Every structure is written in C-alpha cells, then in structure tokens.
C-alpha cells in the first residue's frame, strides 16, 4: 500500500481592498497538493505587467517575462511561463511537493497601480475641514508609501492630511518596494479653498474724499481662494474693484463690499463699508442784503449775506470798493452805515478745491439831509401868471 499524504495548500490571494481583479491565483487542483508529486499554480493578470513573479512566503521562486514568457526559476523545482502563449495567463509548476510548500503563494510584486482614496488625481479641500488622502498600491510583499510636496525632499506620511491653505500644491505619492527597491510615483494636485479673511480697501481707510469729475477705483482686498465680490451703494460692482468714473455728487454715500467664498468656508462671507465723499468747488448761490433795492438810508444797520454751496465748507471773505475793511464770514453786518459806505461789496468763497469764486452787490447809502449854519438855500421860482409858481431849492453845504 502506498500512502498518499494530502497536503492542503493555502493559496492566499493578495488583493488590496480597492483593487479587484488585478490578478487572481489558484492552484490546480484548487484545494490540495500531493506530497512528492507535481503541483501547478495559475495566475491570471488583467493588465500587462512587464514581469510576473511567483512568491512563496513573499520570496520569489520564479519570474516570467511578459515579452517572451520565458521562465527564470530560482530553483530547478520550479518552472513558470505563459499558458497558450497568452501573457495574461501564467503558470508555475512545482515538482516534488514537500511539507514546506504548505504555505502562502502569490504572484505579482508591484508596486503597481497606485490609486488614491478619494480616487481623483485632483482634490479640493476646504480650509479647516480636514481631509485625508490615502495612497494605495498593489504591492507584495510590502511597499513603503510616502508623499512629497512640490518637489521637496521632505517626506510626508501616508495618508496625507490636508487642512490648511499652505498645503495647496502638487504632491507625489511614491511607492517603493522594500525588497526589490522598485518604485512608482503618482501625482496628486491639491487645492485648498480658504477665506475670506478680514477685508481692507486699497487705501486702508473707512472714508475717502474724491473731487467731483475725477476717476477713482477702490479695491476690496482679502485673502481668499476663491471669492466672488459684490459692491453695493450708489454705484454697484460685481468685481473686487469699485470703479468710479467722473464721479458726480449724487454718487456720494456709503459703499459696502461683500466677499463670499464660492465653496462653503467658515466664515463664508465678510463685508466692510467705506464712506465716499464727493468734494466740489464753491458756487455762490446768492448775495443779498437787507437793503431794499440795494438802497438804504444813512444810519441804518445793514446785513450782507453770501450763500455758498460747496464741499467741504468754504471760507467766505468780504471786501468793499469803498474801504480796505474786510470781513471773514458768511454774514457781514455794517452798523450805522454812512453815506460814504456806498459802493460795491464783494464776497469771495474758497474751499481749496478748484478756483475761488466771487459775486458782488451794489449798495447805495442815501446821505442824510443836514442843515448847518453854513447851508445856503438858493430858491428860484418862476411865474407866468397861470396857476401857482413852481419853486425849486438848491442846497449848498459848506464844509470847512
Ligand atoms: C484564468 O483564465 C482562464 C481563461 O479565462 C480560466 O480558465 C482560468 O480558470 C483562470 N485562472 C484563474 C486563476 O483565475
Ligand atoms: C488571453 O487570455 C485572456 C483571458 O484570460 C483573453 O481575454 C485574451 O483574449 C487572451 N489573449 C490571447 C492573445 O489569446
Ligand atoms: C506543468 O505541470 C503539469 C501537471 O501539473 C504538466 O502537465 C505540464 O506539462 C507542466 N508544464 C511544464 C511546462 O512543465
Ligand atoms: C520609508 O521610506 C522613507 C524614506 O525613504 C524612510 O525614511 C522610512 O524609514 C521608510 N519606512 C519603512 C517602514 O521602510
Ligand atoms: C512627481 O514625480 C514625477 C515623476 O517621477 C516628476 O516628474 C515630478 O516632477 C514630480 N513632481 C513633484 C511635485 O515632485
Ligand atoms: C441788487 O443787487 C443785486 C446784485 O448785484 C442785483 O442782482 C439786483 O438786481 C439789485 N436789486 C435792484 C433792485 O437793483
């Protein structure tokens, strides 16, 4: 009687969690091998690796080149190659099966097929919301998986942990086979969305004075990727620039810039206001006095008024053609005007913007009729016998 030992070969198929169907391996027959006899393993691959290796306990026993299907065994117990010249179907023949063969067998080595989890090669992350990217590879027995950023030699650990804006960039995941020293690299592009941070304006002020007719652009500044901007106020804008062209006084007012991140970030929106004042040169709207028809009697009190429209407020200066007296202020009061005060009164307004402007007002102070001992009254009358005779008098004051 010949005893046959039935040895169960545990054929473990290595498949990283997310990679299915890269290869399948099984024994023929599937569940046992007979001690001292031959045994066969089949390995099917779905892609076209340049080389397929068979491993016994993670140690290579035989390699088969895809191009030639040629067997490169480490021991004459093994022979490997392609089935029917098809380099996606491979076999390993093991002769004289022994007890040590009751162990784990695998084919392929890697690194192969780097993939990311999440799977995209481009990832958008919102700052503050941490996101991990795991780099996975079909790799047996073991691979060392590391990351590097923007060509830097600094080694980052897998999985990559992303959460801050400075992590935007291009990353390489490098998978290196620890035994074979073979490596594979795959690139991941990371964009961190952030902001808006505190808003400021191009000239860092909360109010700005612009001269009427001039152009001014106010830019809303914030650190943000990617924000949309909205200006509201007398003039609106949907960019970060508020462009005020030949500004008019009715465009004066409060403007608000609002920056909103297109991705949901915290805070999502920030806004800030700026007061825009429109300055313009003086315009004298009226020059008046309380003298009726610009005439009054000697001895009366006269108030002159100069009304000015300007921004900012103007300095108003009064002068007259009859004296060197001047007055600064909107209202010039002349008390007990004399008849020598008769003349032209001029008001000048200046607010530092553009040219100063002037307007004038005549003022006639009627002289008082004074009789003095030196006054001679010459009277002449005419008579032609019809009705009363008209009389006219001429007054002559003699000053000394
Ligand atoms: C490999 O593919 C062939 C043909 O499809 C099939 O007969 C065989 O069972 C497969 N082997 C494995 C290990 O999947
Ligand atoms: C090799 O085998 C696979 C199945 O494992 C099959 O799909 C393919 O067509 C075969 N190629 C050739 C050249 O026979
Ligand atoms: C591999 O082994 C099988 C038996 O298991 C045998 O029929 C076949 O001829 C062998 N192939 C080679 C190339 O040795
Ligand atoms: C992986 O590789 C890095 C850099 O090459 C090295 O510093 C690290 O020790 C390696 N880790 C393992 C487990 O081999
Ligand atoms: C990533 O690796 C590829 C291929 O090795 C290389 O060309 C590229 O410059 C690397 N990029 C970075 C950001 O390291
Ligand atoms: C008084 O002077 C103003 C300014 O010159 C002039 O516009 C106005 O007509 C004058 N009034 C009279 C009654 O002459």
TrEMBL record:
Keywords from the UniProt entry: Disulfide bond, Glycoprotein, Immunoglobulin domain, Membrane, Transmembrane, Transmembrane helix
Protein location: Membrane
Pfam family, one: Ig_3
Gene Ontology biological process terms in this record: cell-cell adhesion
One of the record's GO molecular function terms: cell adhesion molecule binding
Residues passing through the membrane, by range: 5-25
Domain Ig-like: start-end pairs: 16-108, 111-185, 196-275, 282-364
Predominant place of localization: membrane
Family matches, as SUPFAM superfamilies: Immunoglobulin
InterPro entries according to UniProt: Cell_adhesion_signaling, Ig-like_dom, Ig-like_dom_sf, Ig-like_fold, Ig_sub, Ig_sub2
Gene Ontology cellular-component annotations: cell-cell junction; plasma membrane
Membrane topology: Single-pass type I membrane protein
Name of this protein: Ig-like domain-containing protein
